[in-house]
């Protein structure tokens, strides 16, 4: 099992959407399937890494051979990420909800004649930003994802600087690309030297290529 270039290395992968409760039976979510994050975790494990896989409620099952930490909310995801540290590399593929309902009701909201419920929102922690900015114990390599619909390179380059991560894996999720929820991806890897556009390929192939580059980066 654990041979390969990442044997003895510990790697974190976040994946999937988060669910932010409104009341005990309702939540706010997004359309992330967890497919790309799951593929990345599988590929890193195949190279021998100990993978801590922190996943929100995804459509696809977690890969074999990883340590699964299942969470629902962004705040739970942040706690699980902090508990996973220190790691040699961290890949943030989760689609974390930017906002949560500030005080979720502990009872199911009822229809009333007095009108519609009003939801108040609070900002969720930016987990990638927090880990990227760590002053001590920061992973040697921090990789974020960026789903963009326009000006992909410019937006993702700005995001890399804003977050403080080392690499951004950017993709164009415009509906006509069929990437969101599909089995293929066309990514642009952004690092401090610029942008590298990969040909369109399966999400599993993207994951294997990314895992190989991560292994090269943290072992040389
Ligand atoms: O800012 P934006 O959500 O576009 O950034 C996307 C990247 O940041 C992804 O790598 C995602 O996993 C990460 N992220 C996070 N915590 C958040 C929001 C995004 O880790 N609250």
Automatic annotation (TrEMBL):
Its cofactor is FMN; Mg(2+). GO terms for molecular function: FMN binding; metal ion binding; phosphopantothenate--cysteine ligase activity; phosphopantothenoylcysteine decarboxylase activity. Pathway: Cofactor biosynthesis; coenzyme A biosynthesis; CoA from (R)-pantothenate: step 3/5; Cofactor biosynthesis; coenzyme A biosynthesis; CoA from (R)-pantothenate: step 2/5. Keywords: Decarboxylase, Flavoprotein, FMN, Ligase, Lyase, Magnesium, Metal-binding, Multifunctional enzyme. The keyword Cytoplasm does not apply. CTP binds at residues 98, 108, 125-128, 145, 159, 163. It catalyses: (R)-4'-phosphopantothenate + L-cysteine + CTP = N-[(R)-4-phosphopantothenoyl]-L-cysteine + CMP + diphosphate + H(+); N-[(R)-4-phosphopantothenoyl]-L-cysteine + H(+) = (R)-4'-phosphopantetheine + CO2. Residues 6-216 form the DNA/pantothenate metabolism flavoprotein C-terminal domain. Catalyzes two sequential steps in the biosynthesis of coenzyme A. In the first step cysteine is conjugated to 4'-phosphopantothenate to form 4-phosphopantothenoylcysteine. In the second step the latter compound is decarboxylated to form 4'-phosphopantotheine. This is Coenzyme A biosynthesis bifunctional protein CoaBC. The chain holds residues 179 to 398 of 398 of the full protein.
């Amino acid at each position: 099992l654990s041979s390969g270039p990442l044997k003895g290395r510990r790697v974190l992968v976040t994946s999937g959407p988060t669910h932010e409760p409104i009341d005990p039976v309702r939540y706010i979510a997004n359309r992330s399937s967890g497919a790309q994050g799951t593929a990345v975790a599988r590929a890193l494990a195949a190279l021998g890494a100990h993978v801590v896989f922190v996943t929100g409620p995804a459509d696809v099952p977690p890969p074999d051979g990883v340590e699964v930490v299942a969470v629902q909310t962004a705040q739970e995801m942040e706690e699980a990420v902090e508990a996973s540290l220190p790691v040699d590399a961290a890949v943030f593929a989760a689609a974390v909800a930017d906002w949560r309902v500030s005080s979720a009701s502990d009872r199911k909201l009822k229809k009333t004649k007095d009108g519609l419920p009003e939801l108040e929102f609070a900002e969720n922690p930016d987990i990638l930003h927090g880990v990227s900015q760590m002053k001590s114990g920061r992973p040697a390599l921090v990789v974020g994802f960026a789903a963009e619909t326009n000006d992909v390179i410019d937006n993702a380059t700005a995001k890399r600087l804003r977050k403080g991560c080392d690499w951004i894996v950017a993709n164009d999720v415009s509906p006509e690309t069929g990437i969101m929820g599909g089995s293929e991806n066309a990514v642009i890897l952004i690092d401090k030297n610029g942008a590298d556009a990969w040909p369109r390929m399966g999400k599993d192939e993207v994951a294997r290529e990314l895992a190989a580059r991560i292994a090269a980066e943290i072992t040389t």
